[in-house]
Fold these 3 entries.
Entry 1:
Amino acid sequence: MKKVLIVGESWTVQETHVKGFDTVDLGRLEQDSSSHLVEALKNAGIEVDYLPSHLAQYHFPDTVEQLNEYSAIALSDIGSNTIMMDPIMQFQGIRKPNRMLAMVDYVKNGGGLAMFGGYLSFSGIENKARYAMTPLAEILPVEMLNYDDRMEHPEGIVPAVVKADHPVLSGTEGEWPWFLGYNKIKAKPEAEEIAVIGKDDTFMASMEVGKGRTFAFASDCAMHWGSKAFLAWDGYQKVMPNIFKWLAKEI
């Protein structure tokens, strides 16, 4: 397997500390939420490049040739605007390759693409992720909404496996841990639905696309939707690498 690319799972914070009469503005970069996924892949012997959201605007691969350096790519909690709106194009009026179209061609020619859930995945909060309006809607294994698709479950909700023999579940046993929410998606007729959640919403689905493969995971691979119980679950160390191995056609 070639290396894989994880994109997203980071954000910057600007906050104001009020100390009586005085205020202090502070800023910081948060990107630790990628660590669980990256660690699970590295533990399985998979080489990983990680591209946080603020760098993806500038450095996400522009062409199929650049994407072909990777066996699989995962978008996780990063909206379509960040991928499509290269600042050089936006602020200098210079044409740039459409990265979404490049990903479509990459998959159809043999690449692998996964999307993990989150506030800026699939449709996302206030439909800001808006992937249903992009070329990726053609190749992802699920139908997406054109409005806010968050299903919040502060009480916890447990997915149910419907296709136990799918390769991504190899090595996992028993009931899954609970989650705190997910994106409402539905497997396409031509896709394989692997697990469901809630009232028959899709939790995991996979699909063959041309010579390549795509995968959808409706909840978060990290907190907050990905609960502490999920991140500590033994199956996490199996399922996450298996998704990328399946995308790379190694299982």
Entry 2:
Amino acid sequence: MVVTTGSDGITPRDGWSSRSAFIFAAVGSAVGLGNLWRFPAEAGANGGGAFVLFYILCVVLIGLPILLSETLIGRHGQASAPESVRRMAYESKKSKHWGGLASLGVLGAFMVLSFYCVVGGWVLYYIGVFAQDLFTSGLVGGAFEGRPPGDIEALLPGLFGNGMLMAGLNFVFLAITLYFVSRGVSSGIEFVATWLMPAFFALFLAITVYGAFTGAFSEALSYLFTFHPEKLTGSVMLAAVGQAFFSLSLGVAGMITYGAYVGRDLNLAGTSLIIGAADTAVALLAGLCIFPIVFAAGLEANGGPGLMFQTLPIAFQQMPAGSFVGLLFFIMVGFAALTSSVGLLEAPTAWTKEKFNLSRVTASSLVAFGALVLGTMAALSFNDLADFHPLDFIPIFAGQGMFDVLDGLTAKFFMPIGAILTSIFVGWVADQRLIDGENGLSGGLHKFWRFLVRWLCPAVLTVILVVGIFPSITGAGSGG
């Protein structure tokens, strides 16, 4: 239990029971579909090794400084993300309107949650598909025996065409997320993180080892880590920066919120390094888990978003015990997706609870209901609402349905703007004595971190913001 002092005296605040609990929860929030789905797809679409090596560099120079900045704001403020920023601004004798930067992040987290649970529903669907296949075909053979690859590839479009099923799966995934968040930090969020993250890593390593012995592991290793300088183009670098930023779930107030539950005895710099290293390791292992299976089946690595949901199921067809391995794989993905969705729901729940003096159950239920409304519209944008384009009047959103609009708004606007404002606030606005008392750094490392937060992070993130809004400037697109 973390204790914080409020205007009415000292009141108890639910918090992490230990350092390891915070690390598991923070890693669980960061490690999600961005690592398992987006990273291999991005690596495959952007030439492998050049993308991967530049991605690692971006995690160190961009991701970790912002991650530490967000957690130290939360730990100092000991409140919801907007209130934590306001408290630091007040103590720094600056305008409390700086709390708006975290309010933007809270709104971003709410919007990401609304479409993230739709994708979580896809994962539940594939868990069911592989479980059914395992039950009917047995443990020994490959997945979907006797079915042509075209039928397997058609599973995802078939799901997209069923609006009722899509909306129902979104509801189930969101309901599971709500259950854990409504139980509180130590009894709910910490519980799901400390149980599911070890299970996730065990399954992850088991499938990676399986792929190493049954797939084209050396080919995948070469693909991911052989550096070809000619492939390091501007679009590849932008994609790597964007992936490093998005994979750590920065700019959506989640790490500020989680930081508020951290005790004063924890070194935030060292903990942020562990979180960043774990997140990066999962992304790299995702490539070593997926690509050996894909290459061994003679399939292409540049399948984009369809790599996980279309290419991989075809690859499982050609593997021994493919149904069983496929089932374990999607259960593993489901664990990662759930720990991330819990973090996304917690940020707006903490704000709603504090702002309107509501119980946790009421606050989380209200937020979840709002996310359900948006999420249902996002799910139906693949079918029944396919002709509904809410932001058709904005060129970069022309012709896009609700799912793509929510994704684009958060990725191109809310997340980079939130991270830019965070780096400016920590680097230039907040009293540096407050910052120095929280960040756990000293000497040359502290000076280097301050340089990154003040200069490099806002500059690079501004480039991401501009290119996201005006992709024709470089021809790089959105990096997705």
Entry 3:
Amino acid sequence: MSAAPALGIASFGVAFGEDRDVAATAGEYVDHPERVVNWGFRTYHRAPDDLHATDLARAAAQQALDRLGRTADSLDLVVVASSDLPEYAYRDGAAALARDLKIERTQTLLLNEGCAAGVHGLYYVAATMALQPEIDTALFVAVNRVSEFHRNRMNVVNAVLSDAAVAVVVQRGHRANQWLATEQFTEPEHCDLLRVDFGGTVSPLPPAGWTSRDAPGGHENVRRQFGDDPAVLQRFLSNRYTRLLEVIDGACRRAGLGRDDIDHLIYLNDGAASIAAVAEPLGLPLSRTNAAVAPGHGHMGAADQLVALEQQLASGVLRQGDVVALCGISTDRWSATLLRV
């Protein structure tokens, strides 16, 4: 079995949709905007109608390469994690990004496991580099671009969905922002919880007159799933945090570390109470989480954690040697990755 390679994130690039004020625009999406405002988000990013996931991914990737002084033809691997609908069916989004970057015959991989793919996607980069010693430099991009035709960005979960991409260049032997370990597992029972019921082979087209503005939201889907049984629903909600701690502990075991070694937690861009529910059992205050970053961005799908990591590195919140736990949920999948700054 190959040993885990020594590799680290050498540079970051980010790209955002246009900034929108939550309080000023919530009424365009929901009938009770005060509920959305009370989640605590100030700003979200909405891409113009003609700007799509591959465009955001290309912009973030180019920035990451430029900051490192590298060109795309120096990449040995391109991995893309996309957490919303692609621009086109029957097209490989990782290949589309490689084409936009004007590179050929480069190994690519596309991940579409939802919001946590930006966390466990780093494992697939590390695993590929472990098994292919000829790979020295990889590009990993996490992108979220909401299809407002299919989803109401303010009525899916208790967060405003946002359009953004983050790219990292991972290099073998790079000593900063080193990947230490990743743990993930799936509990498939609730994999349909936030599904869109049309657009696939079962129901290719929406019902006549359907719009995302008036369609039932994620909360209705949750109530339907659990049959209005408060005890069952509460157990499901509590298990979210239990499973997150379980997956973080698993990553710690793989890295030969314990909870006490974690200096900083980066979770999904959620409300402060949800972030605290993960941080407190780790002995971490909110000041050592992404709680201060989240309100200015909304939930950027798979891009949340790496955007927060980039911003906290740039601001000096993270110090050399700190161990950072990135963690997230994709409805049915829990993921955690440990990095050493």
